[in-house]
Amino acid sequence: MVNGLWDADSALMHNIGGAEAGAGRSGPAGLDPMLPADPRPPEAQRPHLRRGLDKAVVGLAGLVQHIFFRKIEVVGMEQVPHDRPLVFAANHNNSVVDGVLLLALPGARPRLLAKSTLWSHPVMRPLLVLIGALPVYRRQDPGVDVAGNFATFARCHEALRAGINIALFPEGMSHNERHRLPLKTGAARIVLEAEDRYGPLGIRIVPVGLGYEAKETFRSRVRVRVGLPIDPASEAARYRDEPGAAVRALTTRLADGLDLVTRGDGWSAEALAPSKPSAPWLRAARLLLGLSVYLIGVPLNWLPYRLPGWISDRVSTTPDEPATYKLLAGLLTFPVFWVAETALAVHWAGPVGGFVMAIAAPVSGYAALRFSEEHDAR
């Protein structure tokens, strides 16, 4: 079962490390043999390849979110600094879809923390490797060695030291509650330990509120509200002498910041406003063109469009799972069908026919989707 991305639990680190003051500062690597053993962050292992992959991942995440959601409203990114390492901390109500939205944040390129059990998922594992995610080991997951969190925390510290942003979900799990869950202290520990080891780094924690119109529904709306960055300087100064108190104080500030960006589900007037009517002749031309593309796109994309919904209906067990299964299934079904249709076109019409089909199948599918939405809106 796919159940989202995760942030490290302070209780794990406390139990492993003994005294709270030393938690997370040393310990065995403990990484799962299925995961990379190199303690450095991915970008330090193959910097040029990692930077190229990061750019591709940001582009792919942006494309996926614009296909999955009809309207994306991002508010507050202008107050986020770009001259220092950042830790993006978001609420977690929609499993893997939450991670896609964080990856697509303009200019962020964060390194995501994900629960280690996702690496055993046949679809998720290659995606996690592609995005350079870092595994976190949860006490509630059967057969998981939580000692691996020492290595993960160390990789987070190195990433922040290198100016690489981190993204996590401090509630610790994807859920369906209308209120925020109590926060784990992993985000505060990562920040304060990095500042203690390598500081001053000038790290800022950025609260991010993800608000869904209907989180399980394809082509619904989502609002990404970015809060004021939190400066942990006062807690960092206190950390060496009172680590536990400093961690708790910073976690409380983060909770307050998340409450501000997740309060209310209202939408801006701009997001709710219908599109302005165009001239009659232009509407007629768009209708004829749209209908032509629609008649091409529907036959080529109807089955891969419907399959993700059917799959999600049969395997989802909680309200935060349908969108994730639709997303993952769509990432598989559409390319498979497009490749098959292109192969048939090559067989019947040669390379030129195959090239035309390779372009027409995805483009006409998206155009048909937009045409159907605009027609329904009227």
What does this protein look like?
The chain contains twelve helices and seven strands. The chain has a seven-stranded mixed sheet with strand order 1-7-6-2-5-3-4, sandwiched between helices. It is 53% helix and 10% strand. It is α/β, with parallel strands linked by helices. The chain has helices at 10-17, 42-45, 47-68, 95-103, 124-131, 149-161, 186-198, 233-239, 243-262, 269-272, 280-315, 322-377, and strands at residues 71-75, 86-90, 111-115, 134-136, 166-168, 204-212, 221-226.
Keywords:
single chain, 378 residues, alpha/beta, 7-stranded mixed sheet, disordered N terminus
In short:
Helix content is 53%, strand content 10%. It has helices at 10-17, 42-45, 47-68, 95-103, 124-131, 149-161, 186-198, 233-239, 243-262, 269-272, 280-315, 322-377; strands spanning 71-75, 86-90, 111-115, 134-136, 166-168, 204-212, 221-226.
Per DSSP, the total helix count is 12
**Average pLDDT, all residues:** 83
Beta-strand percentage range:
5-15%
Cα distance, first to last residue? 39 Å
Q: Residue ranges: pLDDT <50 for 5 or more in a row? A: 1-37
Radius of gyration: 23 Å
Helix content: 40-55%
The profile of the biggest β sheet is: 7 strands, mixed
Give the ordered list of helices and strands: HHHEEHEHEHEHEEHHHHH
What's the total number of strands?
7
Biggest β-sheet: strands ordered side by side in the sheet: 1-7-6-2-5-3-4
The shape is elongated
Alpha-beta content class? alpha/beta
